Amino acid sequence: MNTLHRLNWLRSAIVCLLAALPTAVFGYESETHQQLTFVAVKQFSHCAQEFIEIEQPSALDTRYVVRANVAQAEGNFFVRMFRWNYYNRADEENRSAVWMIDTRFHDHFNGLTTDLVEDQERRQRLRTFGRILSYLQDVTSPAHVVPVFTSRWWRLSFSDRFDRFPLDVDGIESALNEFCDTLPELAPNFDALLTNTAADTIQGVRSKITGFPTTWESYWEFAKDSDEFGEYGPAGNQFGRRTRFSCGNRDKCLLLENDPLYQAFAMERHITAVKSTIHAMMLMQVLERRRANAEPLDLNAD
Fold first, then answer.
1. What is the rounded distance in angstroms from the CA atom of residue 85 to the CA atom of residue 106?
2. Distance between CA 138 and CA 29 in Å, rounded?
3. CB 3.0 to 4.6 Å from 245: which of 107, 232, 234, 290, for a disulfide?
C-alpha cells in the first residue's frame, strides 16, 4: 500500500470513527424519550383532574415539548461530536473534558434552565423545557450516570444495550396509579431534580441482583474517583441478553435472554424517568404561574 493509499485509508477510518462516536454518547433513543414523555403527560393529565392547582397541558403544548425532547435526543453530528451526554457524579465543578470535547452535559443543562427563565416566547420556553426533560430522562440510564463510555468501536458496539431495552408502558402506568398522592413532594428546582433522579439510578446500580451474590455493578462498574469514567463489569455490555459471568469468589451468575430480573430493573429506571418528567412538569407550571404574576422566576434558588 503506497503512502497516498495509506492516507486515504486513515482519513476514511477517522471519518467513520467520528461518525460512530456521536451515536455512543447520547442516552435513550428518541423513540424511548417520546414514549416516556407521553406516558408522563398522560399521568400528569390524570393528576390534573384531582388537584385544582394543576393545569392540564394542551395537546399543542405537549407536541412542542415532545418534539424538542426527541430533537435533543437525536441531536446533530457536530453537537454530538463535541458535547457528550454523561453525568458528573463529583460535587466539584465540571472539569471533565477531552481536547475540545465537553464530556459532561451540566453546563448545557444549566444553560437551558437559565434560558427557561429568560425566554419571552412561550413556544420557545416549551422547546427549552423539552430539552431539559431529555437530560432528566437520560440520567435514569446507568451507563450515563456511572458513567461508562459506551463506544466500543473495536467490538463494533456503539451504544449501551440498556438504552434500547423496550418500555413496558402498561406496567409503568399500572405502577403509577397512585402517584398523584406524591406530587406535592417536589424538588425545589430543576438542578435538585436532576441530582435526585441520578441518585436513584446510582442506588439502583449498587443494589443487589435478586438471588445473586453481586450487584448491578457487574454490568456498570463505578470508578474510584467520582469524576472519572467507570467501565463495564464482568457481565459486559450485555443487559437483556443471556449472560454468564463471575460474581463472587468462585460463583458464576447466569441471566437469561429478557430475564425477569432485567425487566424488573429496567422497569424501576423507566418509572423513575416518568416520575422525574412529571415533577419537571410541575416545576414548569410553577415557573409559568410566577411569570404570569410577575413574580421572581429563579427556580434554581434554594
1. 9
2. 10
3. 234
